[in-house]
Structures are given as structure tokens and as C-alpha cells.
Amino acid sequence: MTLTAQARGTIAELRESVARLHSELTRNELVVWTAGNVSARVPGEDLMVIKPSGVSYDDLSADTMVVTDLHGKLVHGELAPSSDTAAHAYVYRHLPGVGGVVHTHSTYATAWAARGEPIPCVLTMIADEFGGEIPVGPFALIGDDSIGRGLVETLRATRSPAVLMRNHGPFTVGRSARDAVKAAVMVEDVARTVHIAHQLGTPVPLSRTDVDRLHARYQNVYGQR
Ligand SMILES: [Zn+2]
Fold first, then answer.
1. How far is Cα 218 from Cα 225, in angstroms, rounded to an integer?
2. Catalytic residue among 46, 128, 179, 212, which?
3. Distance CA 163, CA 151 (A)
4. What pLDDT band is residue 182 in, cutting at 50, 70 and 90?
């Protein structure tokens, strides 16, 4: 595959940033062993940068990241791509606004996935980040497009950038890989808080109007601009 100098430069930067973002998964204790992965779409190309399969987090670097096309076929890199590559690729093919995808088996979010229970919107933080409850996606086996299809169907029906795939764990998306990592950190944090709230009683849901107001404000006003 021939790439322009600009595309090669973009890929070099994404290899760096995607490698660095994997350290956020370990720093935030979202992953064990080699589970979990981050990918980024290469803007303007039908390509993505993703973690290699089965490599220890300590050994991940820009050089070990792999580049595949949006069907998961290896384009650049020495190592085999992550076993979740097909799911990431499916999301990029079908949701053009998505620039980054993250998958983990973080403990609390995965516990909700094990019960097949959406995380209810009972905190302003959930309204801010997720715009409502965090939905559950269908059970799907790895190996074909089933996980990707389940993710895209669920993401199209929600404002949430996180989906709890049933009996599996969270997948998150964002405009960039960094946004998707942020959503992965946030979904674990609220999964834990709401779990703890459940131990002592029934968390109180926010009204739809308040959820909409909070979400609109956070998405449009909050932060440095
Ligand atoms: Zn998984």
C-alpha cells in the first residue's frame, strides 16, 4: 500500500499516542495481563492503529503497534493485531464519527455486563458523560462481525459512548482514541459508584429533563476551549 508523506506522518504520531494511551489502562487498573486494547482511526485513510495481540503492557511501544485496514487486515507491523481488531474495524466502517475505540474487562463495568444490566443514570456525572443510562449490548462470540454489529446497533440507539457487551465487558468510543480511553475510565468509575450505592438502597434516577440539560451543558460548555 502506498501512502502519502502526510499519511505516514499521521500514522507515526498515532503509533506513539496509541502506545501511550495503553498505559492509561494499566494506570487506572482497567486491565490485567494482556487483556484490553485501544485503537485509533487514521484520518482520511481506511486504516487504523491498534495494539498487537498478546504483548505485555510493559513491552508496548510505538514500534510494536500495528496498522490494519478497516477489515482488520495487517498493513504495517511485525506482530499480529489484537484479537478484537474485527470489532474495532466494524465500528470504524459503520460509524464515521468515531476516531477511537477502547475495550477492557474492567471489574465493575464487567460485573454489570455479567448481569446484563444497564447502569442507570443516577448521577450528574453519568448524565454529563453518557447522556443517560449506559446500555447493554447483545451477547456475541468473537471470531466474526457479531461483536462489531452488536456494538454499532447499540451505539446507534444511544448517546452513550460506552456499551456493556453482555457477559463480556465494556467497549467505548470517542472522537479520538483519548476520548474513548476517558470513557473507559469513566464507565468503570460510575459502575463502581452505582454498585456501591446499590448495596445500601435504591439509587434515585435523574429526570429526563435534567439529564438532557446536564448532557447539553457538559458537551458544549465544559472544559477548556
Ligand atoms: Zn474482551
1. 12
2. 128
3. 7
4. very high
> Per-residue pLDDT for 112 more than 70?
yes
Q: Kindly report, residue by residue over 80-110, the tens digit of the pLDDT.
A: 999 999 999 999 999 999 999 999 999 999 9
C-alpha cell of residue 124: 450528574
In angstroms, what is the span from residue 1 Cα to ligand 1's centroid?
30
List the beta bridge partners of residue 39: 50, 101
Q: Ligand 1: distance of its center to the CA of 83 in Å? A: 9
Distance 187 CA to ligand 1 centre (A): 15
Look at the domain 5-220 and name its fold: L-fuculose-1-phosphate Aldolase (3.40.225)
Q: How far is the CA of 133 from the centre of ligand 1 (A)?
A: 21
**Per-residue pLDDT, 225:** 54
44-66 tens-digit pLDDT:
999 999 999 999 999 999 999 99
> Residue 3's pLDDT band (boundaries 50, 70, 90)?
confident
Rg of the chain, C-alpha, whole Å? 17
* CA nearest to 64, candidates 5, 53, 31, 75: 53
222 is catalytic: yes
